[in-house]
Automatic annotation (TrEMBL):
Top-level taxonomy: Bacteria, Pseudomonadati, Bacteroidota, Sphingobacteriia, Sphingobacteriales
InterPro entries in the cross-refs: DNA-bd_dom_put_sf, HTH_17
Protein name (database record): Helix-turn-helix domain-containing protein
Pfam families from the UniProt entry: HTH_17
SUPFAM superfamilies membership: Putative DNA-binding domain
Organism field: Pedobacter hiemivivus
Residue ranges occupied by any Helix-turn-helix domain in the UniProt entry: 45-91
Amino acid sequence: MGYLPMTLDEFREEFTKLFDQKADEFFKRVFGMKTEGNDDAEQSLMTTNEVTACFDISRTTLNNWIRMDKIISIKKGNQRFFDRAYIERYKKVNFSFNEKLPTYYSKNV
């Protein structure tokens, strides 16, 4: 077995610090918001009703998107929240020019 320049407990502590740092960087990049002590982060969260109004979709459609991993949400207790910056980027990328997704009824009308 090779020489480790620290004890196993020191290694675990250093690994935990590194992991926490990388996890924070990941969440900042993915959600576009701070992860520690940020009052603005709570204000940048959107409720399910706000997201359904933003996309002009039903709650069932939004729940399907969540279940199919098409959209990211944060669950706190019994409520779901969405990062406002993420939703705006998602809408811009997936709904260019405010187009609506074609539906069965729109094709036959």
